Amino acid sequence: MYKKYFKRIIDTLGAVILLIIFFPIYTITIAAIIFDSEGPVLADVPERTGMSGKKFKMYKFRSMVVNAHHMLRTDPRFKSLYSEYKRGSYKLKRDPRITPVGKRIRKHSIDEIPQLINVLKGEMSLVGPRAYYPDELENQQKKFPQTRILVKKVLSVKPGITGLWQVSGRSEVDFDKRIAMDAKYVDKVSLWLDLKIILKTPMVMLSGQGAI
After folding, report:
1. Domain spans, the chain
2. pLDDT in tens, 53-104
3. pLDDT by residue (tens digit) across 159-208?
4. DSSP letters for the chain
5. Verdict on whether the full-model pTM lies above 0.90
């Protein structure tokens, strides 16, 4: 009952309330991004894979140089960095594409605030599995073939802004463990679990635990 009906109500109300609460923060962030580097305020990132495999545009504050994602995948100068990116479960500990302001907003997950718009649009939930890149899912399932059944389960629900793995290590968790936690969340989703994760999230944001 909660998963089918009430979760969407909580998502909508929660997103509206959080947008109001975070108004001063995202106003300052927008100004900081504009003065820090050339380019748009929102990141131009590839589509993510949502519920039932449907692709959607995720909104994030830009924390990297313009065209960073395309650059990583196609620029010969970043060939070794891209190899490291794929080996490291699509995370980089040291990324030269990140701007000075970007480093700060990524550490405290401030770049994720615009995803509240995705929640209002019904593409995401406040709490759920990670929203993976299509090529990330494809390549990581080749690397960890035992995760294929878990990926199918994870894609049966909407991805979330925060989730079980985000409050349990975030970027320090490799794909196989991350997708297992996401699948565990899908199996156990409830109002109590969502509230527990939501209450843990601010501390993770403030501490920057596991952030890259």
Report:
1. 2-207
2. 999 999 999 998 888 777 778 777 777 777 777 666 666 777 788 899 999 9
3. 999 999 888 865 566 788 889 999 999 999 999 999 999 999 988 877 76
4. -IIIIIHHHHHHHHHHHHHHHTHHHHHHHHHHHHHHSSS-SB-----EE-GGG-EE----B--B-TTHHHHHHH-GGGHHHHHHHHHTTS--SS-TTB-HHHHHHHHTTGGGTTHHHHHHTTS-EEE-S----HHHHHHHHHHSGGGHHHHHHHTTS--EEE-TTGGGTGGGS-HHHHHHHHHHHHHH--HHHHHHHHHHHHHHHHHTTT--
5. no
| Structure tokens that stand for 116 in this block | 């509240």
